[in-house]
Amino acid sequence: MHDPEWDALVQSFRERNPVGRRQTARDLAAIASIYKRHEHHWLEFNEAKGIASLELGRKAVSEFHPMCRHLCRLGLAGDDTGRASVLAGFLDIWKTTDIAPKGIPAWIARTKGGIRGIQGTTLSRSYRQGAC
């Protein structure tokens, strides 16, 4: 499955350690865009790109976690920084919204606390509603 946007995203992660908030927002927007394009065959897309599932002892809660681990170059190793988990958790929240992938950076920028602020607000709302 050829996807030039995927190839560019992988190259971007290989060339740097993503630390800037704006870069992370663009990364999330790119992953979301790729997901929208391949949503109908997401598992097959992951397999075609060599993204390892976490079937060996661990079960990924998020359908985005294996891809985020792959992009962060973790393989099946532990996510000591939690970065892949944060990215995947954010994408799980995004998927429940009507926000277009290209709108993700603006959403993050206008939310107090950015990515973690969005995650914290959503988790707080879930606990109040008894979802957790």
Task: Please write out the topology.
Elements: H1 4-15, H2 21-38, H3 42-48, H4 65-71, H5 83-95, H6 104-110, H7 114-128
Summarize the structure in words:
- This protein is mainly α.
- The protein has one domain.
- 60% of the residues lie in helices and 0% in strands.
- Helix 2 (21-38) packs antiparallel against helix 6, helix 4 (65-71) crosses helix 5 (83-95) and helix 5 crosses helix 7 (114-128).
- The chain is globular, with a radius of gyration of 15 Å.
- It starts with a helix and ends with a helix.
- The model is unreliable at 124-132 (pLDDT under 50).
What's this, in brief?
With 132 residues, the chain is mainly α. The protein has helices spanning 4-15, 21-38, 42-48, 65-71, 83-95, 104-110, 114-128.
C-alpha end-to-end distance: 37 Å
Q: Class by helix and strand content?
A: mainly alpha
Strand content: under 5%
Report the radius of gyration as a whole number of Å: 15 Å
Which spans have pLDDT < 50 for at least 5 consecutive residues? 124-132
Give helix % range: 55-70%
Question: Which terms summarize this structure?
Answer:
single chain; 132 residues; mainly alpha
